[in-house]
Every structure is written in C-alpha cells, then in structure tokens.
Amino acid sequence: MSDGRLPVQRRWIRWLIGAVAVFLLLAIGWVLTRGVSAVSELQSVARATSQMRTSIADGELERAALVAPRIAQHAATAHDLTSDPIWRGFEFIPWLGSDFTAMREIAEIADSTVSDALAPVLEISSEIDLATFGLAGSKVNLAPLADIQAPLAAAEATLSAAEMRAQQIDTDAMITPLADAVREMRDVVTEAATLVGAYHGASVLLPTMFGGEGPRNYVLVMQNNAELRSNGGVVDSLALLHVERGAITISQWASTRDFPSLETPLPLSDSTVALFEDRPGRVLQDVTSIPDFAEVGAILALRWQQRSGQSVDGVIAIDAVVAQHLIDVTGDVSFGAFTADADSILSILLSEIYTSIPGDDQQDDAFRQASNAVLSAALGATEPQNLIGALAAAAEEHRIRVWSAHPDEQDLLAASSLGGTLPVDGERGPYIGVLFNDATGGKMDVYTAASISTAVGVCQGEPTTQVRVTWTNHAPMDAADALPESVTGGGLFGVDPGDVRTLIAVYGPEGATLGRLDRDSEDDGLQTTKLGTRDVVQHDVLLAPGESTTITVSFTGPGAGDRLTRVRHTPMIDTPETTRVDLSCP
After folding, report:
1. Is residue 93 in a domain?
2. Domain tally for the chain?
3. Do residues 384 and 432 share a domain?
4. 6-15: pLDDT as tens digits
5. From start to end of 48-134, where are the E strands?
C-alpha cells in the first residue's frame, strides 16, 4: 500500500521546479526594479546635461561645475544597475534579451561620456570661458586656445566613439519606456559630441584663421533664401572682412553688379555642369547652386581676385536666417527706411525690400545696408556668450559655410559641418540629400514649402531607400497682378508671373543605384548624373499658385535600406518637415 507520499525522485523534481520558479520570479522582479531605476537615472542624466549646457551658454560656469557631479552620479548608478550577473543573464533571453543589452550599453556610454569627456571639458574652463570662447566685442582672445586643444581633442575622440556606439543601438523593436530612455540618452551623446567637436575645431582653427600668425582677409557672402540655391540662396551682396590678431573689421562692400557675367566660364566639376550647365562658372549669383561648398568657395575667391586683384584667405557664406539669429541677440537694427527686430527681419530682407523699393539697383543697395547694419551690430555685441549661441544655432542648421585657401585648414573644415562638402557615409550611417534651386528668376521662394520623408527596408530582395519630396507653391492666386516683377520674375525665363519653377535634385547613399522614379504618376523632365559616388536625379518642376507636387525616388543596392539613413537638404526659410515612414514596395 502507498502511504500517499510521492516518491523521493518526484518530490525532488517538484522542489527543483519550485525553486527555479521562485528564482525566476525573484530575478524578474530584480531586473524590473533595476530597469525602472536605470531608466529614471538616465532621464536624470539627460535633464542635468541640458541644465549644464544652458549654464555654459549663459556663462555660469560655477553652476555648471555644480551640476557635473550630479550627472556623473546618475550615469554611474545607471551603469551599476545594468551590469550585475542577473541582468547580463537576461540578455541571452530570445527576443527580449536585446532590450537588456541596449540598456546596459547606453548606460555604459552615459558613464563614459560624463567621466571621460564632459568632466575634462569643464576642467579647462579655468583656461578660457567656454561661453564666449574668448570673444569680446569684435575681437577674439587667441592666447589660451593652444593650451586647450589637447584636452578638447581627447574629449572629442571619446564622444565620437560613444556617439557611433550609441547610433548602432536599434530601438525600433524595444519596449517603449526602454526605447524612449535609449533615444533620449542617444540625443544627449550626439549633442555633447557636436558641442565638444565644435569647441575643438574652433581651438585649432581660430588661432591662424583669426590672424594670430599674420593678417587674414575673407570674402563674406550674404545669400537670399527667397531665391533658393543648393547652399541656401542666391548671392545678394559681399563684404571683405579683415582679421588681425583676433580683431575683426569690415573693410569693403561689393554688390553683385560689380561682378558681370563672364563670357568664358570658370572651370567646373562634371556634376555641376550636368546639373546646371555652365551658369555657376559665369554668373556670380548662381555659384551657390554648386552642392559642394569646397568648389563654391574656390570659385568665389577667384571671382573676387579677378575683380579686385586681391587674393583672399577664405570665403564665408551665410544666409538671411542668420540675420534673424543675430538680431535676436543684438536687438533692433535700422537701415534706410526700415527698423527690424527678430520677428520682422526676414520679412524685410526677403519680401518688403522687393515689394516697396523700385529698381534692382536700389533693392541691392537696401539689402547691402541691411547686411551692414546686422553685421556691425553683431561685431559690437556686448553679450558675447549670446552671440556665440546664435552662431552655433545657425551652424547647426547648416546656414554658415566656410572655405579656406590654406590646405591644412580646409582639410579640417571639410571634415566638419561648416565645410559644406558632400557628406561621407560611414559607420554612423548613410546620407541622402535634397537640393532646391530656383529657376524662376524672382524672389518667389518666400511662398514655397517642402516636406521630405524617407523609408528604408527591402523590396523584392534588394535593400531599398525611398525618398519622397512634396513641393508646394503657396503664392496668392492673383500673384501675377498683386506682386511686383522683382518678386515674380516678370516672365524673365519664360515662367508666367506667379508660377514657380524649381530644380529639385535628390541624391542617394554612396554606392546605391537609382531605382524607380515617380512624380504624381506622370513622366517629367529630369536629369541623372553623379555627385561623387552618388546617383542623383534632378526634376524640373513648374507650379502655378496653389499647386503641389510629390516626387518619389528609390535607391537600391549597397548603402540603401539602412535604418541609420540621415537627410541633408538645402537650408530654407522654413526648415522642411522631415519624417521616417514605412517602406511601400511596388
């Protein structure tokens, strides 16, 4: 007879199963508790880092120094919470394990970023005020810059590696709270890498470019976004900046009227000729159509030398929106019949000058007077930290381009966003680009708007990147009668007044090949060529007031289909909405 008790072996199995179940429940509770705490710590890192950046920008370095230990503590705690053996064990669970790995990696990155990069950067604040970077009025103090190059270089290297590692973390399939924490921390790392990279670049370039080893002269080019070009806008006025021992002065002004069209064009790259024929080599206003600013800068420097007999050390190009950033710091400026503040300056520069002043010469003079007033106010600014912030914001929007005639400096510029060269694909992901060039001959782009979406994935077994560009003419229906010829172009290039003609070029990732093309399901006049190793297609678009069109371009093969794909586009008055959508295969 049985006494009702289970055999010893069966009881042992039940105990084992029960023990394992209890252990799993405790382990799940353990990692969930630590995961929630880690998310909270990373969010604290993000908030405190934002506070520290604000403190640096405001020149309150003592407050920034007080925030730094708090950031370090939160980052180290997040790292500890996600590094124990139980957490590492959960990383091997199918489907869910990648979430735990991502959290551990982003916590490690946060800890490294703070301890190995941000803390050393704050330590050099005794050498130079990072909020002003030596700027006082129209002069930069060059003396301390050499001493801070090495620590900034080390910090930049650390942050660059951290950013690259953070970008490789795939958050698309993660649990929402964890994905949000990873994305937020990834943004912090990218922001820190950009900021420190800019500091390091400035510490290397400013001592020589600002006349520390002898006087320098730079052509400053003002672009008008109401008539779009690849790099921002049509060339509207020029100035010569003289820089010596850190002091900056405006020594000369010039109008585009001083640069008549050339009968024999200057040499151009094959891709430029394929897209725009030889106009950028003949017509000064069209030089900024060239996508690569290294080519733009060299041509503008040569045009200046041909006119004046004076060689220059470099070219700086800014667009009209930079004026808005600067006036937001300097306050109101007056020129001619206008007084402008940050809210009205764009309307004046891009519209009112052309609707209220008759004659091209008078309009050019008004634009030059406005540029002079804005630049003079900026050079005399009494709050340099705010001026640095305004310039940094403009640079982040790719509204400032710099080319140097000195090869060693140009190499550094070409590797930065300031250089305006064609982007280089790499471990951080590939680029696609959208370029807008006005062919109306007026200032109608104040009435245009763009949106850009990308989709990546696989279609018919091929890695695919799809780019969709929507372009709209918001001009009033009576634009032909209501707007002057200086705005509509007056039919100068065969475009009816009120209509907008635009060349829209889309280039793909390096190595990818052009696939399907579509414009509102209709055939369209287009050009195809190469920008370096990139396939590019250019559409010739004509829109009447109220009309809109959508261009869809697909690229396939190597470089395509990458989830890290990023978008570069022409700097415009209003930044286009850029979105990521699901890939739709034909």
Report:
1. yes
2. 3
3. no
4. 555 555 555 5
5. none
